[in-house]
Amino acid sequence: MGEVETSSEDLAKVAAALAARRPAGAPFIIGVTGSVASGKSTLASALAPVLEAWPDAPKVERFSTDGFLLPNHILAERGLEARKGFPESYDLAALALALSGLRHGPMLIPTYCHITYDVDPARARMVSPPDILIVEGLHLGLDRSAAGPRSTLIDTLIYLDATEADLESWYVERFLDLWEEAEHDPASFYTRFRQLDRAGVTDVARAVWAAVNLPNLREYIAPVRALADLVIVKRADHRIETILETSDQAPT
Length: 252
Prior knowledge:
Blueprint: H1 8-21, E1 28-34, H2 40-52, E2 60-64, H3 72-77, H4 92-101, E3 107-109, E4 112-113, E5 118-119, E6 125-127, E7 132-136, E8 156-161, H5 164-181, H6 198-221, E9 230-234, E10 240-245
Helix pairs in contact: 1-2, 5-6
């Protein structure tokens, strides 16, 4: 079962909360973060046309932090293959430069391909400063170079929250989808798992979740929840259960 579409009512609630936080100057940079497989890109994609329908018809751009992952060959050289997705596997300085640079002029934004499981230099694109920028992905909330814990590069930060069990289920589901698609795409990273049956691939996905994504979630991703302006709590079927604004969150 894939992700269900976010309801227009829920999108309207998110948009209203964002409108109240929109600064006078442009661009308005919105971060969407949360665990691997939490639905960050899906929300960003659904939210963009809703924001474009605002009365001033703002130009909306979006990109993923996945493009700022170090290429696989560099991860291999540094012995970081098993740490892919952790902060040290990203060029966070380049991401910070892109976010700050887009407030003033065009920036070349790299792109990641989930099929090949690597950054794709051929798909890099030049992005001009928009009225609204939605950037989705990991490690958006913390800025280790700043004086405080919260990054100043993001105007409003959204955190997608769900139980660990649901996040694991969604990750395994996505892994299996990519494995099935690899049957007809020899260039896919997931072709290497085609000799396994569905149960075997499920075991691989669960092992990757337990060894990589769950520790990353607990150590680096989940702590950002306390820094978010909006927390969107999702149910097992991907539907939105609650939208919490900063003032609504329980103290931690």
